[in-house]
Amino acid sequence: MSTDRRKFLKHLGTSVLLTSASLTSLAAQEEHEIRTLRAEKRAGPNDKIRIATIGMGIMGFNDTRAALSVPGVELVAVCDLYKGRLARAKEVYGANLFTTMDYRDILDRKDVDAVIIATSDNWHSQISIDAMRKGKAVYSEKPMVHQISQGLAEIQVQKDTKMVFQVGSQRISSIAYKKAKEMYDAGAIGKINSIEASFNRQDALGAWQYTIPTDGNIQNVDWSRFQANAKVRYDYDQNRFFRWRNYREYGTGVAGDLFVHLLTGIHYITGSKGPERIYAIGDLAYWKDGRNVPDVMSAVVHYGETKEHPAFQVTLRVNFISGEGDKTVTKIVGSEGVMDLGGEGDSFSIRNSKMAEAPGIGGWDSLFTYTEAEQKKLMDDYNKRYNESQRMRPKFEPITYRAPQGYNASNEHFANFMDAIRNGTPVVEDAVFGFRAAAPALLCNDSYFSNKVINWDPVNMKII
Predict the structure, then answer these.
(1) Which of 5, 83, 332, 418, CA to CA, is 20 to 30 A from 184?
(2) What are 100-159's pLDDT values in tens digits?
(3) Domain-located, residue 121
């Protein structure tokens, strides 16, 4: 058994049961139960947090639902640029809900403690900055910026205002990721050298061809406000508004939507500040619907050696027309094992493989090309030097972990955010961490469109 493996098992201690089928951590269960008890505890009047959501699209509604799962949270206002979504918000949350098409109306309200920003990517940074300056805590959907140039300014505003700021890449709050990080730190897979991470999809909705309402016309959409910060203005186009992820002017493509999730998890588990070199290629292979971003993209990202980790490389891929169907994988490969984080961040598995102490002889080897006398001489010497146990590869049972039934990482992410507002506890994904995950993802776009390697300074967060 290797030193790292012993350290790993010692770290887990008696609170963990290891089998070939499952890993059930009593410590993890206890943490979940504590969170459940907190959730069941009725929040007092002074604990109430009043929120508003800016951008009531898919993520806006989902984020709002997750935020309201935290006791003592109340929705008081919403903003959207399509009148139909404001009407839907009143259907869901009550006719007295305040609605507006101007986010500044939200920020001027004295009864709003925190805002969820779930707009198109091009508005994340500006609204976040305006909200923090107005004294609001901010939960910003990922990526926190649309352009690399926005990152340091947004970080500075958070430091100046000292407002609670969390980026919405929810898997980082998952109990499964916490346990995976513990095991990685304990040496469960040896010394890291590479990571393979991918999102595969195979349907129109997964490729952002979202349903467009019959009344999604210029009379019901504030188109001028939507593209107010765009360098190039277009006549009203319902595809650009309701399917904005397909366009560089408002979204960040597959890299900003999905690579950033993968990088967030990678940075959290490895403790990395980010990569040094980035190169990406891609194609518009199938969804040729007017979009100007690729539907298949691959990137090679190099992480240099730091005090947090050895050098390793990451391959990232998104495929919106994959014959494999929907599948998400992150495989962290070490010298003695592989950690596989799949699905929505609610589970992982570890498979170990370690080389024998003896180097091996025979088989696919040059041994058979020598004379029989030389072969015998070499074999006799080999057998004297290594005993049978040294010639055998160690065997390990696979390990899997699954979060408790009913566990929801999005709810946990918002519980973390609300705890920070109430108690001053650190958020799990602050502005610096969020930018260090977003920047390499956006640089994949820069690499793709410029067809060149991008050099990045992950400590100072600047392009070299």
Answers:
(1) 418
(2) 999 999 999 999 999 999 999 999 999 999 999 999 999 999 999 999 999 999 999 999
(3) yes
Do residues 109 and 209 both lie within one domain?
A: no
- The verdict on 327 and 284 lying in the same domain is yes
> How would you classify the pairing of strands 16-18 and 23-25?
antiparallel
CB burial of 402-424 (b: ≥16 within 10 Å; e: otherwise) equals bbbeebbbbbbbbbbbbbbbbee
Please list the residues that pair with 52 across neighbouring strands: 77, 115
Check: CB of residue 318 under 8 Å from CB of residue 259. Answer: yes
> Half-sphere exposure of 345 toward its Cβ, with a 13 Å CA cutoff?
24
**Residue labelled with tokens 């277009």:** 234
Residues 146 and 233 in one domain: no
CB contact set of 32 (below 8 Å; sequence gap of 6+): 175, 403, 404, 407
351 and 454 assigned to the same domain: yes
Q: State which residues form the domain around 112.
A: 33-171
**Do the Cβ atoms of 199 and 318 come closer than 8 Å?**
yes
Give the count of domains, the chain.
2
The amino acid present at 460, given as its one-letter code, is N
Nearest to 137 by CA among 70, 90, 81: 70
Q: pTM of the prediction?
A: 0.91
For residues 177 and 183, give the distance between their C-alpha atoms in angstroms, rounded to a whole number. 10
Domain boundary among the residues 154, 171, 188 is at 171
Q: How far apart are CA 58 and CA 295, in angstroms?
A: 20
Mean residue pLDDT of the chain comes to: 92
Task: Write down which residue in 150, 171, 192 finishes a domain.
Answer: 171
Whichever domain contains 69, its CATH number is 3.40.50.720
Q: How long a stretch of residues is the chain?
A: 464
Same-domain status, 108 and 242: no
Q: Could you give the residue ranges of the DSSP H alpha helices within 200-244? A: 223-226, 238-242
Q: Which amino acid is at 202?
A: Q
Average of per-residue pLDDT across 254-268: 97
**The pair of three-digit structure tokens given for residue 182, joined into one six-digit string:** 């513990």
Are 181 and 329 found together in one domain? yes
Task: Give Cα 304 distance to the centre of its chain.
Answer: 21
Quote the tokens at residue 125: 């940074």
